[in-house]
Design a protein that fits this description.
265 residues; alpha/beta; 15% strand
């Protein structure tokens, strides 16, 4: 049974951006602490497997895209619906069981404490990313890109590329996230935006798992993502210096999503 508002009376919602996650969804959800988590929302980006059917069987509120739009668009839908559902804290967790669901209460508590606005589950802090199976090229690129971004954005994060994040309601209401990419670089843009607009970012060490069923982008997509990260950093620096203006770093009240998804009944 869910205890509403276990963390200082705040409503905690976990969002699951899903794509072909049928093999790992149940295990991910079963490890969520429902004494802390008030609701779980799943957004399916037009999977070809049984993700939506399984989510319905598990009693999860689910939303289905009318076609495959991409990981970034999936998150836009996730956050829109979580805010509509009255979330005070929104935790984004991949349903592929790569990140530990058991850390959701700790990450949510760091936001509820009002010491942090955004909390990241870092694979790097614990020093075991490689032992957990992170490919060498991913580890090297992760560390290299993070170094570049820390220099260009004036931050001190251990990594910018984790897919496990917790946000306060205010962050997702105020950041112009609809201007972000519909692809993987969305993950990077939203963190750069949070830094640009002065929100406080914290991190917690998070073990990670690499196995065949866990989602992972290939080398080609990783390269495209890396270029997108560098472009995000350059735009951040140019706008901070007043040399250019970009929508992703410009306050906007335009947070409306078009009608491209439906709630699964």
């Amino acid at each position: 049974m869910t205890v509403i508002g276990m963390l200082n009376g705040k409503r905690i919602i976990v969002v699951l951006p899903a794509y072909n996650a049928a093999q790992t969804l149940r295990q991910t959800v079963e490890e969520l602490d429902r004494q802390v988590v008030d609701d779980i929302l799943l957004v399916d980006d037009f999977s070809s497997d049984r993700t939506v059917e399984l989510a319905r069987e598990m009693g999860l509120r689910s939303f289905l895209h009318d076609r495959n739009y991409g990981y970034g668009r999936n998150q836009k839908t996730c956050y829109t619906e979580a805010l509509k559902s009255g979330a005070d804290v929104i935790v984004m967790l991949h349903p592929d069981y790569q990140y530990s669901p058991r850390l959701v209460p700790a990450m949510a508590a760091m936001v509820v404490s009002e010491e942090y606005d955004v909390v990241l589950g870092s694979r790097i802090l614990g020093g075991k990313a490689r032992k957990s199976g992170m490919p060498l090229y991913k580890y090297v690129s992760n560390r290299g890109l993070t170094l570049v971004q820390n220099l260009m954005l004036g931050s001190k994060l251990s990594e910018f590329h984790t897919g496990f994040r917790a946000f306060s309601r205010r962050v997702l209401e105020e950041l112009p996230i609809m201007a972000n990419s519909d692809g993987f670089v969305f993950d990077n843009e939203i963190l750069a935006q949070a830094i640009f607009f002065g929100f406080r970012l914290g991190e917690i060490s998070c073990p990670t798992r690499y196995f065949p069923e866990a989602s992972s982008i290939n080398f080609a997509r990783s390269t495209i993502y890396g270029l997108g990260v560098l472009w995000t950093s350059l735009r951040f620096r140019l706008q901070r210096l007043g040399l250019a203006s970009f929508a992703v770093f410009t306050e906007s009240s335009s947070q409306h999503l078009p009608d491209y998804y439906t709630e699964v009944q």
